[in-house]
Write a structure and sequence with these properties.
This protein is an alpha/beta fold and 362 residues long. The protein is built from 13 helices and 13 strands. One of its GO terms (cellular component) is cytoplasm.
């Protein structure tokens, strides 16, 4: 394991919005409102997302006055690397510092099919899942769309050194994406745009813990984005123990919303199911889970959990994981076991931040 640290310096507070938060049409509108030609937006996007410059001054085919206008109204969000951990399997976990001194995690995962980036949508989380380090210390604030975009740009800048590219994005980092819904949607549209990062919709996955009203809203967007739901339990009682959000949106309500999503979009949903030793990993749980998802166009992704020191859960033994998988398959459920990555670094979501930024996560 390789770990790179940089010293923490007091961060200057940025008050200007991130230009990464603007979609192309929004930038064109802003330019016209400021008596500039709309086509300049195409040039600005080229500099931001193809050339990946970090200063407006580097946008050499723009007039000096326009460059100054941009600098007076926007910032190009930069993320300061506090820690960079590299796993023996190639996974890289970044702890980034934001302009206000808060920190977030971003993960680069290497697969046979390409490079995937897991991004964060909030500083902390208010959902309170009992197995997750991300929720330690609660929610500090939402990220603006540009701060989420900047995570992908930052990783892409690192990959530029080896002529590689980010080929897929998962929104499964710190925070609940649907709790920051509008910024998340803007982020999706920006990274998907062919003049921005041009990441195909079917190579983007967003996950929610189950904010039911937003599932309906997301379904009505009718995007081709992959959709995952953190389920983790096959019944309401157990899910409420693991995930307090289930007290607000009961499992039957959640499943009804998921059925609406599948019917509205024609797309399947993925159920994320973390396996916790002697909690939700018995054969009877698998039987119950199979009954719960019956008739839904779906895929179940079994996740052998990473141990989190601040939590009491332990990993399910391998033979029990395979038995759980077999039980689901016997009931005709489409199921896989997630390949473990980054086990020799602080791989669990929020774990690196919890360890290094204790003042944020108390």
């Amino acid at each position: 394991m390789e770990q790179v640290r940089t010293s923490k310096k007091e961060a200057a507070i940025e008050t200007l919005p991130s230009i990464y938060s603007l979609q192309l049409d929004e930038l064109k509108t802003w330019l016209k409102e400021n008596n500039e030609k709309a086509f300049r937006a195409d040039q600005i996007f080229e500099w931001l997302y193809k050339q990946r410059v970090t200063s407006f001054e580097d946008m050499s085919n723009l007039s000096k006055s326009l460059r100054q206008l941009l600098a007076d109204n926007f910032t190009i969000t930069t993320l300061k690397t506090i820690i960079e951990q590299t796993s023996s399997d190639g996974t890289i976990k970044f702890l980034f510092e934001l302009h206000d001194g808060y920190s977030i995690e971003t993960v680069l995962m290497r697969h046979e099919y390409g490079n995937s980036v897991c991004v964060t949508t909030q500083v902390g989380c208010r959902i309170g899942c009992t197995f997750c380090a991300s929720t330690l210390g609660g929610l500090k604030r939402n990220l603006e769309a540009g701060e989420i975009v900047a995570q992908v740009v930052k990783v892409q800048q690192a990959l530029d050194q080896t002529d590689e590219r980010v080929s897929s994005v998962v929104i499964m980092g710190i925070g609940e994406p649907f709790d920051n819904f509008n910024n998340m949607l803007s982020f999706l549209k920006i990274i998907n745009h062919d003049q921005a990062l041009n990441i195909g919709a079917r190579h983007i996955t967003v996950s929610t813990s189950g904010i039911v009203p937003k599932i309906y809203e997301f379904a009505d967007q009718n995007m081709q984005i992959n959709f995952a739901v953190s389920l983790h339990a096959p019944n309401t009682e157990l899910r409420s123990r693991l995930m307090p959000i289930n007290r607000a949106y009961k499992l039957p309500q959640l499943m009804e919303a998921i059925r609406y999503y599948v019917e509205k979009t024609g797309r399947r949903v993925s159920f994320e199911y973390g396996l916790f030793g002697n909690v939700n990993d018995q054969v009877e749980h698998a039987e119950e889970l199979a009954k719960l998802v019956k008739g839904i166009k779906c895929h179940v992704n079994l996740i052998p959990v990473n141990y989190v020191p601040e939590r009491d859960y332990v990993r399910t033994p391998k033979d029990q994981i395979f038995l759980f998988e077999k039980t689901l398959k016997n009931h005709g459920v489409n199921v896989t076991i997630r390949r473990e990555q980054g086990s020799d670094i602080d791989a669990a979501c929020g774990q690196l931040r919890a360890k290094e930024r204790q003042e944020e996560t108390r």
